[in-house]
Amino acid sequence: MSSGNESCWSGNGSVGTLACLLLAWEDWMGLGNLEDYLSFLEYLLWVFTPLVVVFILPFLIVILLYLSILFLHVYKRKNQLREAYSNNLWDGARKTLATLWDGHGAIWHGYEIDGLEKIPDKGPALIVYYHGAIPIDYYYFLASVIIQKGRTCHSVADHFLFKVPGFKLLLEVFSVIHGPQEECVKALLSGHLLGISPGGVREALFSDETYPLLWGKRKGFAQVAIDSKVPIIPMFTQNIREGFRSLGTLKFFRWLYERFRLPFAPVYGGFPVKFLTHLGDPIPYDPKLTAAELAEKVQAAVQALIDRHQKIPGSILCALLERFHTRPKEE
Questions:
Q1: CA 211, 213, 219 angle in degrees (round to 5)?
Q2: Concatenated DSSP letters of 156-212
Q3: Which residue(s) pair with 268 in the sheet?
Q4: Axis crossing angle, helix 78-87 with helix 89-109, rounded to the nearest 10
Q5: CB-count burial class (<10 Å; 0-12, 13-18, 19+) for 316
Q6: How far apart are the first and last CA of the chain?
Q7: 117 near 87, Cβ under 8 Å?
Q8: Under 8 Å between Cβ of 224 and 201
Q9: Beta bridge partners of 125
Q10: Integer Cα distance of 17 and 6 in angstroms
Q11: What's the average pLDDT block by block, 10 residues per block, for the chain (331 residues)?
């Protein structure tokens, strides 16, 4: 025991005994050096605080600037929003959300659409697209159609989305259906646009940076187009797999989906890569084509967009650089 403790034990009375016990406890717990530890932590705080402030403040300023830009995106359409709210409550809500999503796409991904003029101003059309790990490009596309075309594009979504708590109102306002062919035909015969991804959840989970189309032998979308006698517009967004990627290619998550039909696989990303949506030439209604033949023709059209515009395999770094320098389109 230390000399301090020895002198302590030599003291008289219960006070001396208590003091000795406290000193012994400090020695056993190693608290004698606590003051030194605290001094060292204080020194580190003194050294690194200026560095942290130096890096955080510019970051906060950048966030403030982006929020300001987002506000301006909304404000510049205030007249459209005011008119929308005066006509219909949900129309105003749709245009407000569309403006927010449009602003987010422009700021974070430099989002653009090549060929928006191919979307008709009136009348029905079926839009068939490649499904990313998170179809955020499709959300941006819907927002652009609402803002620039003044139309709400109906959409087909997997049934599991309708079971997500809180999503019901959002799906209703944006005219999302779970996909029976009769409902799809009804929407098109009513003169609406309709968007569908034949690859669906399977393509979202198990496709990768090589961009394979995982449609299998699906032809229901083609039968819908035939029954409705509408054109099909193929669509693909460049770099969508570089924005968000899925770990669905791991065997466990594929087994989970195949065995229990649980559409679960971790998704990572959110990288601010360049998104450019390409719309192909409309494929007109042809009564001579069967559903299988039309499905094959549409798949070839989407594949052609991928081959023409997408670097294979996709590169996150190259997609980031395209924010500053866009590769020339191949003829």
A1: 165
A2: E--GGGGGSTT-HHHHHHTTEE---HHHHHHHHHTT-EEEE-TTHHHHHHH--TT--
A3: 245
A4: 150
A5: middle
A6: 87
A7: no
A8: no
A9: 193
A10: 11
A11: 49 58 59 60 73 64 70 77 79 89 93 97 98 95 96 94 87 91 97 97 95 96 98 98 92 88 87 96 97 98 98 95 71 46
Beta bridge partners of 225: none
Q: Which residues are catalytic?
A: 131
Residue 189 contacts residue 285 (beta carbons within 8 Å): no
- The span from the CA of 322 to the CA of 306, in Å, is 16
pLDDT at 82: 81
Strand 276-279 relative to strand 232-238: parallel, antiparallel, unpaired?
antiparallel
Task: Give the pLDDT score at 21.
Answer: 62
Which of 327, 314, 330 is closest to 212 using CA atoms?
A: 314
Interatomic CA distance for residues 80 and 96, integer angstroms: 9
Residue-wise DSSP of 214-238: --TT--HHHHHHHHHT--EEEEEEE
Between the alpha carbon of residue 18 and those of residues 11, 21, 33, 324, the distances in Å are 10, 5, 21, 72
Q: What is the pLDDT of residue 1?
A: 47
d(CA 300, CA 291): 14
Indicate the angle between helix axes 78-87 and 34-75, nearest 10 degrees.
70
List all residues 6 or more positions away from 248 whose beta carbon is below 8 Å from its beta carbon: 133, 204, 205, 206, 254, 257, 265
Give the β-pairing of 193-196 and 153-156. Answer: parallel
